[in-house]
Every structure is written in structure tokens, then in C-alpha cells.
């Protein structure tokens, strides 16, 4: 295999250099059945919310080259508390690499930080680190649950030899990192030898990270002594190797990256080692070179930054085909980022029209724009640049990744290099190296959802799915088997589909017995690198979360509306329930004059899908049973009290009651109940086909698992502006530019004249668009 070398060698003595075939087996393994590498970014309309706000978001899914992914249609976006408790998961439909959604809550929330995590099913091939994680702040409406507080402060001081190990009798670089109760902390310190003599000193430079260089003498051992506030922490520095090679990377030059290899006399006097340097980004290979070192003088390679990958690059040093050292470094490529120009075009009665132009980027792009008040304290935790160029390639926790791409951050090159220096590296085998960078295919791309189950008896080998207007949307051939499976369905939660046999190419036959496989809930958990980073110790989750979250999907349905009189509803929850109640009353007033005194019951989808009866539902939901009084009268009992059943306005007596209880749930539209001191009244409303005695030639299935529907954005009305950390003006999740990089968009015309715009997106060519702009009242041109 041949690569075009792009190296300049300086300060080389007695160096043997050659394009190598030694690493061919490793390179072949990296490129064999090479997996694509997907990345995700979620752009939220704000970074801080009140408990009544809606978290609006747009998701971006890209390939390894930051171009829109065309492979995946399903993205799982989850919201977690800072303790790792799952609040909600949205299944987002991804089309041409983008999708939109929202989190909305009708419950009380504790104040604090919440994590947003997103991944596709396919991304799991590359392990837990290949997930997107960001965080937002929610100003809750109830106190934060009590947790077990630390009885003592936990200090975590770590040292990271550059490349993975130290080498005796040469100058080595040591990365330093300090956490106090899981948070970065300032520090200073010094290196001491075995005689407690100070060799050199060091200081924290950025977010609890620093570095120090010193020569490791072969006759010595060393300790790093950290001064953290009023505490001294001593850490034993790993013993250096007697033989080998060290690696040092310098990215400070704007044009080149310098990679320095240094060996010692103990190594070159006993043998003439050959090392192969592989430059790559995951399983994408940039180049490789073999070097034979014949003396202890350093070898310095300079690489042109323009030729390297945009973002995190890795150099792995191999000896005899085994990886012995590894160092990550970052390359900023300004030409891959586009600046944004915005011009006001016109002012209408209800909106302002702007033109957006991506400077020097004549290509179609897909972007989202969050419009906030100009005095907003807006501090994004992530951007599309940090999500696509940094986080997916770092194994550990990254604190505030957006800061490395903020134009106001000073000395970004040094700070991001410190981050990569302190990620650590564990020596591993060639197999482990290949498995990490090009893992085996275990998880599929998802293009939709599946519908599986069994049907009997077999009326035909052709089973079809039909739309509401009876058009065939999917078909499967059963081959005389009772099991069926429809794949890659674009279906939303709660949507229904008709299922039937088709015989002789046109005649529909209704399936008699059909059972659908239950869809297991995702065991979704927060990336462990982010879990408990706020306090550095395991937390005890308060019962609040368990009662409000874990018990939402009950096997026995006791509707929450039963307890409305004892629950104080917040405005958003109350408003939603009032709207639902109005629609319900309007729909069924003709059957029940006192419908306003009834509460609708929640009916889980599986009661429709599993062909269950009304009695089976009431038995599970209300503990209902039929009681015979002396063989003369039969009546219904629910929750230990007598119950009365009405169907479409008619009361059921002892003779009609048993038959009414056998109505199939698929023939029922809604059920309402009314509780009185000594009796419960259930009112059942059937479907139009049931009322008209129309025989259906199909079964109806309601999707319990599917995509979550995206709602249309609306601007909230703020009553007390002091309660909201960020005041939103507008949210434009879908903005396209043309082939000239231009687009026109509107902003709601309100009392504000100055705005802050958070703009994120990507182009069809993989260019990243990320900028925060301030708009004043620009004159109309």
C-alpha cells in the first residue's frame, strides 16, 4: 500500500528511513470491512430554561467527513438529570442528516443541570464514548431532591506521561490534572526526586490541567507534589522505561505540526530499533513512515497542517507491529469554517426579513438559528464544531467543549493540546488497537421501525399494511409461516395502520387472531464519563424521581385524573388538561349531557393491538369483576364498589351487561368515568363502524413505538422576565441556503430591536457553520 508522504525531517543523524511494508497487516485490518463513523450534534434553542419552557432542538447527524449522513433515519435523544436519571427519550426522524423535536414537561421539575444525550443505533459499534452529550440548565419549580453529601472532600490528582510512558535519561513531558469532588481545580506544585530535592515546578493552566517537562535520571525515582488550596497531594510518578523511545508533539506553529522522537543510549547501544509511525483519525489513515534510529539524537518530523485531518489527529508508534506509544493532537483548519453575514431586507407588520450569506462558501447548507434577546447570558456547552471535531475522538470527559472553539478564548491551541495530553493512554495489543479504531459490525443502521408478531389461522400468504385510504403501503410474504415482520416503517407513536390478508391479488380478509410482539424499552443510560461529575461520588436518587418517572407506564392503569382534586397543577399542565377536556366534551356531549363531570381514561395501545375485551381492560385498570346476586341479577364491581356501565349513552342492565363487556377494545374510541361516593359510572364510546354494524376486513394496529412528532414552534409569553435566564424571541430550526450560500429568513417583529443569534449547521460538503452574532437595528436597504 502506498501513501504520499508529506514530512520534512530535521536534526537527523544516522537515520534509516523507508516507506514500510511492516505495517501492512495493521493497515489492512483497519480498512477491512471498514465501518462508517457517524457523529451527532443537537442544537437547542437556549441553554437555560424555566420549568414551563419547551426545550426545542434540531439534531444533525454526519458521517466521518462531517457531511450529512444518508444512512440513518432514527436518532434517540434523551434527557437526564445530573444524577443520570432518565427523564424522557425522543425518537427523532432523521432525513438527509437532520431532524427536529422538543422536550415538554407537564410535571414539577427540580432546579439544576440536565444532560441531553443523543446517538443512533449504529454509533454503538464504536462504544459508549461515541455519543453526543450536552447540558442545559432548568430553573425548576420545586427544590432539588436531597442527596447524600460528601463527608469529606475527594481529591483526584493525576499524571499522564506524553505518549503513554516515560523514558530514562531523556527529557519527558508529563500532563497534569486535578479534580476536587469531580470538578476541575486550580493547583500548583513541584517535582521531587528520591532525596526530596525540588527538580522543577508547575502550575495549572486551564480547567484543572497543566504540564511539566523534566529529565528522568536512570538512578532516580520521582514524586509530583500538588498544592490544592490548603491541601498537599503527593502522586508517585510512574517508573520510566529503561529502553524505548519517547514522543513529543508541538502544534504551536500555525503551519506545521512537529513530532519529536527521542531514544536513549541504553536503547541504541543494544540494538537499532525500528519504529513505524501511523498518522490517522480513527480508521481513516493519513500516512505512515518507518524510522530506524541509530543514535540517541532526536528525530523531528514536521507535518503540513493543511494535509492533516480537520480536528483530532492521532499518531501511534509501533514497534514490531505492536503499538507502544500514542499521542493525539488537534489541527484547526480555518478554511473549513464559514463566517456569516446578515443583512436586513425589509420590515413587515409581524416580522422582519433578513438575508443570510455564508462568506466564501458557495454550497447548499442546512442550518438552525436561535433568536434571543441581545442581553441574554448565552453560554453554549457544545457547538457543532466541538461535537464533530473534538468530543467523538476523546475517550474521557470533556469539560465545556465549546470553549475550545470560541473566538474569545485565548491561546486555544495550547489549551486543547493540554486536554488531549491529559486523556491518558493504556498500552494495548494490535488487536485491541484495531478493534477500537475499526470495530466489528454489531449494530445496524436504522431506517425506521419494525412491526412483528404472529397471526392465525393463515388465510393467505400475503399480509399487507394499508393506509387510512386503503392504499397498500407494505407487503410481506409469509411462506406458510405464522410469524410476520414489516421492516423500516416510518411510523409515529400513536399512529394506526390497517392490517389484513390479501387473497387472489385483491380481496381483503380480516385476520382472526393476531398477536404483536411487545417492543422492549431501550435501556438508555447516561454516558458514564458525565455521570456524577458534579460531585465525584455516587448519589442516592430521591424517591421523587422514582414516583414521577419510573411508574408512568403501569400494568394496571389507575388514571392520574382520579387524584386531580389532591394535586396542585402548574399552569402548563393545567392548560393541556383543560384543552384535552374541552375537546373530549365537544366530541361526546350528544351521548351524555353531564359529560363535563366525567374524566377520560388512558388506554394503552396494547389493549387495542392484542385484541382484548372491555372487561379485560376494566379488570386490569379498575380491578373490575362481575358479581351474581342469588342468581337473579348480575352487576359490575370496580375497586370494591358497585359500578354502572353505559355504552354510547345507553345504560346496561343485568341482561345486556355481559355482552357489553365482551366488546373488543379495537371497537372502542374512548372510555370515561365518574366517581360518586358509593358508585362509579363508566361510559364507553364505540367507533363509527361498530355503531353502524360495519364488518371491517382488517385489523387496526396502534404504534406504541415509533417516531415522536415534532411540534410547531411558538414563542412563550413571559410574565416575569426576571425568572428567565434567556429570553427567546424566535426559533428557526429549518433554514436552507442555496448553492451560493444564501438564504432569507424571518424573525417575529416584537418590541425588541437588538438580537443575539446562535447559528449552527453544516454544508453538503462537510463545512461546519457555527457562529454567535449580535444584530442591532440595521437600516433597511
Detail the topology: elements first, then pairings:
Layout: E1 7-10, E2 15-18, H1 24-31, E3 39-44, E4 48-50, E5 55-62, E6 74-81, E7 86-93, E8 98-103, E9 112-119, E10 132-139, E11 155-161, E12 171-180, E13 183-184, E14 188-193, E15 198-203, E16 209-215, E17 222-228, E18 231-236, E19 245-250, E20 256-263, H2 265-268, E21 274-281, E22 284-293, E23 299-304, E24 311-319, E25 322-331, E26 340-347, E27 351-358, E28 365-373, H3 384-389, H4 412-421, H5 430-437, E29 449-456, E30 462-466, E31 472-477, E32 483-489, E33 496-503, E34 507-509, E35 513-516, H6 543-550, H7 571-588, E36 599-600, H8 605-609, H9 614-622, E37 625-629, E38 633-638, E39 641-647, E40 650-651, H10 657-660, E41 668-675, E42 679-686, H11 688-691, E43 699-702, E44 728-737, E45 742-748, E46 755-763, E47 768-775
Parallel strand pairs: 4-10, 39-42
Antiparallel strand pairs: 1-23, 2-22, 3-5, 5-8, 6-7, 6-9, 9-10, 11-12, 12-13, 12-16, 14-15, 14-17, 17-18, 19-20, 20-23, 21-22, 21-24, 24-25, 26-27, 27-45, 28-44, 28-46, 29-32, 29-35, 30-31, 30-33, 33-34, 33-43, 36-41, 37-38, 38-39, 39-40, 41-42, 46-47
Amino acid at each position: 500500500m502506498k501513501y504520499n508522504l508529506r514530512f520534512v525531517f530535521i536534526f537527523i543523524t544516522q537515520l534509516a528511513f523507508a516507506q514500510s511494508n511492516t505495517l501492512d497487516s495493521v493497515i489492512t485490518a483497519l480498512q477491512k470491512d471498514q465501518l462508517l463513523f457517524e457523529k451527532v450534534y443537537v442544537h437547542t434553542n437556549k441553554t437555560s430554561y424555566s420549568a414551563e419552557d419547551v426545550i426545542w432542538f434540531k439534531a444533525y447527524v454526519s458521517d466521518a467527513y462531517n457531511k450529512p449522513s444518508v444512512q440513518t433515519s432514527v436518532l434517540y435523544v434523551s434527557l437526564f438529570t445530573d444524577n443520570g436519571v432518565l427523564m424522557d427519550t425522543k425518537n427523532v426522524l432523521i432525513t438527509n442528516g437532520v431532524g427536529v423535536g422538543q422536550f415538554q414537561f407537564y410535571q414539577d421539575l427540580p432546579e439544576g443541570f440536565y444532560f441531553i444525550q443523543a446517538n443512533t443505533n449504529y454509533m454503538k459499534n464504536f462504544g459508549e464514548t461515541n455519543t453526543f452529550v450536552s447540558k442545559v440548565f432548568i430553573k425548576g419549580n420545586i427544590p432539588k431532591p436531597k442527596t447524600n453529601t460528601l463527608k469529606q472532600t475527594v481529591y483526584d490528582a493525576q499524571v499522564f506521561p506524553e505518549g503513554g510512558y516515560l523514558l530514562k535519561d531523556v527529557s519527558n513531558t508529563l500532563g497534569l490534572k486535578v479534580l476536587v469532588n469531580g470538578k476541575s481545580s486550580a493547583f500548583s506544585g513541584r517535582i521531587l526526586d528520591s532525596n526530596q530535592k525540588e527538580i522543577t515546578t508547575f502550575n495549572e493552566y486551564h480547567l484543572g490541567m497543566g504540564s511539566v517537562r523534566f529529565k528522568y535520571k536512570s538512578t532516580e525515582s520521582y514524586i509530583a507534589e500538588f498544592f490544592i488550596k490548603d491541601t498537599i497531594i503527593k502522586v508517585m510518578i510512574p517508573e520510566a522505561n529503561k529502553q524505548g523511545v519517547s514522543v513529543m508533539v508541538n502544534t504551536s506553529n500555525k503551519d506545521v505540526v512537529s513530532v519529536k522522537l527521542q531514544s536513549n543510549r541504553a536503547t541504541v547501544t543494544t540494538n537499532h530499533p525500528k519504529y513505524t509511525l501511523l498518522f490517522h483519525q480513527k480508521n481513516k489513515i493519513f500516512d505512515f513512515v518507518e524510522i530506524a534510529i541509530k543514535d540517541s539524537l532526536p528525530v523531528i518530523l514536521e507535518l503540513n497542517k493543511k494535509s492533516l485531518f480537520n480536528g483530532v489527529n492521532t499518531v501511534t508508534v509501533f514497534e514490531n507491529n505492536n503499538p507502544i506509544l500514542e499521542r493525539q493532537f488537534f489541527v484547526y483548519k480555518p478554511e473549513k469554517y464559514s463566517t456569516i453575514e446578515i443583512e436586513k431586507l425589509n420590515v413587515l407588520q409581524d416580522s422582519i426579513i433578513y438575508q443570510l450569506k455564508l462568506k466564501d462558501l458557495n454550497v447548499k447548507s442546512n442550518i438552525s438559528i436561535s433568536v434571543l434577546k441581545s442581553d441574554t447570558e448565552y453560554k453554549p456547552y457544545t457547538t457543532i464544531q466541538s461535537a464533530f471535531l473534538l468530543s467523538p475522538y476523546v475517550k474521557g470527559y470533556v469539560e465545556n467543549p465549546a470553549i475550545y472553539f470560541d473566538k474569545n478564548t485565548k491561546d486555544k491551541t495550547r489549551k486543547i493540546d493540554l486536554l488531549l495530553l491529559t486523556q491518558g493512554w493504556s498500552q494495548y495489543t494490535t488487536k485491541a488497537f484495531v478493534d477500537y479504531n475499526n470495530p466489528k459490525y454489531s449494530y445496524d443502521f436504522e431506517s425506521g421501525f419494525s412491526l412483528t408478531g404472529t397471526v392465525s389461522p393463515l388465510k393467505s400468504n400475503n399480509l399487507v399494511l394499508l393506509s387510512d385510504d386503503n392504499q397498500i403501503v407494505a407487503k410481506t410474504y409469509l411462506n406458510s409461516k405464522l410469524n410476520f415482520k414489516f421492516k423500516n416503517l416510518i411510523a409515529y407513536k400513536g399512529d394506526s395502520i390497517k392490517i389484513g390478508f390479501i387473497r387472489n391479488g385483491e380481496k381483503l380478509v380480516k385476520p382472526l387472531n393476531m398477536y404483536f410482539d411487545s417492543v422492549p424499552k431501550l435501556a438508555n443510560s447516561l454516558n458514564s464519563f458525565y455521570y456524577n461529575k458534579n460531585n465525584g461520588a455516587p448519589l442516592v436518587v430521591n424517591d421523587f424521581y422514582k414516583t414521577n418517572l419510573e411508574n408512568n407506564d403501569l400494568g394496571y392503569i389507575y388514571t392520574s385524573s382520579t387524584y386531580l382534586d389532591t394535586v396542585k397543577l402548574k399552569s402548563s399542565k393545567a392548560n393541556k388538561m383543560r384543552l384535552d377536556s374541552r375537546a373530549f366534551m365537544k366530541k361526546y356531549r350528544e351521548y351524555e349531557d353531564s359529560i363535563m363531570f366525567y374524566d377520560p381514561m388512558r388506554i394503552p395501545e396494547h389493549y387495542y393491538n392484542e385484541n382484548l375485551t372491555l372487561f379485560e381492560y376494566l379488570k386490569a385498570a379498575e380491578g373490575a369483576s362481575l358479581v351474581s346476586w342469588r342468581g337473579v341479577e348480575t352487576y359490575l364491581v370496580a375497586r370494591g364498589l358497585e359500578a354502572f356501565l353505559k355504552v354510547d349513552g345507553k345504560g346496561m342492565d343485568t341482561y345486556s351487561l355481559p355482552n357489553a363487556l365482551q366488546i373488543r377494545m379495537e371497537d372502542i374510541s374512548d372510555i370515561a368515568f365518574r366517581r360518586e361516593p358509593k358508585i362509579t359510572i363508566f361510559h364507553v364510546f364505540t367507533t363509527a363502524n361498530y355503531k353502524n354494524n360495519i364488518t371491517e376486513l382488517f385489523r387496526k394496529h396502534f404504534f406504541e413505538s415509533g417516531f415522536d412528532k415534532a411540534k410547531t414552534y411558538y414563542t412563550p409569553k413571559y410574565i416575569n422576565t426576571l425568572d428567565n435566564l434567556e429570553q427567546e424571541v424566535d426559533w428557526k430550526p429549518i433554514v436552507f441556503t442555496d448553492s451560493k450560500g444564501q438564504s432569507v429568513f424571518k424573525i417575529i417583529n416584537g418590541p425588541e430591536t437588538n438580537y443575539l443569534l446562535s447559528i449552527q449547521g453544516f454544508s453538503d460538503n462537510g463545512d461546519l457553520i457555527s457562529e454567535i452574532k449580535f444584530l442591532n437595528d440595521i437600516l433597511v436597504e
